[in-house]
Amino acid sequence: MKPGLTGINRIIKASGHSFRGMRDAYRHEAAFRQELVLTIILLPLSVWLAQTMTEWLLLITPLFVLVIVELLNSAVENTVDRISAQLHTLSGRAKDMASAAVMVSLIFLTVVWLSIAWSRFYV
């Protein structure tokens, strides 16, 4: 076990790091801000669109997945940029793969939302 804080003090300290990470992502990552705006717009719409609690959970899950994946994408990009400014095939590949994860999350969000909208209005 690592030495250091335990119990509630560790949780408080870890929460501070998490909030700082969210703040830094908001301040420094345009894509994060755009996806946050999308989430803020779609969250209230999810309440209107969903006809059951299950549908609502299905609608909001990809929103949270998208934000999580964007945070991880930003972490990968920042880490790669910190290691070296020199172009390298593996650095580019890591950044491209993280970006691809964001794209897959956006596709997931689109498929879920269109499927539920289709079932509400056309079935």
Describe this entry's structure for a reader.
By secondary structure, the protein is mostly helical. It has a single domain (30-121), classed as Helix Hairpins. 86% of the residues lie in helices and 0% in strands. The chain contains four helices and no strands. The protein has helices at 7-28, 30-49, 53-83, 89-121. The longest helix has 33 residues, at 89-121.
> What is the helix tally?
4
Might you state the CATH topology name?
Helix Hairpins
- Tally of separate domains: 1
Q: What is the element string, with H for helices and E for strands?
A: HHHH
Oligomer: single chain
Q: Helix amount, in percent?
A: over 70%
Structural class by sheet pairing and helices: mainly alpha
Question: What is the strand content?
Answer: under 5%
Low-confidence stretches: none
Keywords, please?
Helix Hairpins, 86% helix, 4 helices, 0% strand, 123 residues, globular
Give the secondary structure arrangement, pairings included.
Blueprint: H1 7-28, H2 30-49, H3 53-83, H4 89-121
Helix pairs in contact: 2-3, 3-4
Brief summary of the model shown:
With 123 residues, this protein is mainly alpha-helical. The protein has one domain (30-121): Helix Hairpins, CATH 1.10.287.3610.
